[in-house]
Amino acid sequence: MMGFNKLPEECVSTILSLSTPRDACRAAAACSALLSAATSDFVWESFLPNDYNEILSRADQSLVGKVGSKKELFFMLCSSLPIDAGNKIFMLERSKGLKSYILSARELKIAWANDPMYWSWKYVAFSRFSETAELRTTSWLEIQGKIKTKWLSPNTTYAAYLIFKTSARAYGLDTMPMEASVQVGNDPVCRSAVQLHQDAGPKHQIERLLYGNRIEMLSSRVVQGPTTSVSVTPSARDGGWMEIELGKFYSGKPCDRDDHEDDREVKMSLMEIKGHHLKGGLVVEGLEIRPI
Questions:
Q1: Rounded Cα distance, 19 and 40, in Å
Q2: Is the full-model pTM beyond 0.70?
Q3: 9-29: string of b/e by CB count within 10 Å (b at 16+)?
Q4: How far apart are CA 150 and CA 253, in angstroms?
Q5: Torsion over CA of 39, 41, 44 and 48, rounded to 10 degrees?
Q6: Which of 33, 97, 131, 165 would be a feasible disulfide site paired with 47, CB 3.0-4.6 Å?
Q7: At the topology level of CATH, where does 99-291 sit?
Q8: 136-145 pLDDT, tens digit each
Q9: 123-134: pLDDT as tens digits
Q10: E strand or H helix at 75, and its extent?
C-alpha cells in the first residue's frame, strides 16, 4: 500500500486542509517529505475564517502589511489583533482556528458610564486597551456586551467572561450576589448568581453584620429561575486581572452576511440592581467571548 508521503503533494495538501492546524504542524514535524504540503498557503488558508480579509481591513495596516504566508497570518491572528480603532481584539484559537473576541469597556453598554460622578475612564497598567472603566459609586450596576453570531465560528459552544479587577477602595461589590445572564436573539440561555469576592476583611464582615438578613432575602431573588446556576466565582488572568463567567451559548449554523434570519444578536450582562446599596471600585477592562 502506498505510504502517505508517496502521494502527490496536491493530494496531501487537500487531505491536510480537511484536518486542523495542530495536525498540519504535526505532519510537517513528522516527515520532511510532507513539509512543503503542510506549510502551503492552500492548507493554511483553509484554517483561516472565511471573513479574514474583512477582519484584516478593520486592523491597523502597519500590523498586517508585512505578513507573508497564510501560515504566518494564521499565527499572527492567534497572537491577538486589535481591530476597530483598538476597541476590540480578535484572536484565533491555535489548535482548531476558532474565533475569539475581546470587547473593550468602551464597546460595552454601561449604565451612566459617561457621567464622571459614577464612572471614570483611564489607562490601567497591563491592560490591552487604552482605557478602562472604574466605578466611582452607584446603586445601579448594569454592564452589557453584544455580538452577532455571524462573527463567531459556527456550530461552536462559547462562553462570555467579564474581565475586571477591584481597586483598593472597592466597597459594596459583594454585599449580595450579582446577576449574570446570556441571551441569544429573544431566547434567554442562562442566568447565574456570581460573586466577585473581595477580600473578606473587616469591612466585608461589617457589611454582613449590618445587612445580613437583607442580603439573604435579596440573594434568594437573584438565583430563582430554571436557567440559573449558583455560586459562579472568578478566576485569575495575567496582569492582575480577573475574569467571571457570565454564561455559555451555542453559535448555531453558518450564515451568510446577508442572511438575517440565522444571524442573531448575543447579549451578555452583569447587573446588580436589586440591593439599592452603594458600591464602587470595580475596574472593567472588557468582555471576552471565546470557545470552550
A1: 14
A2: yes
A3: eeebbeebbebebebbbebbe
A4: 9
A5: 160
A6: 97
A7: Jelly Rolls (2.60.120)
A8: 999 999 999 9
A9: 999 999 999 999
A10: helix 70-78
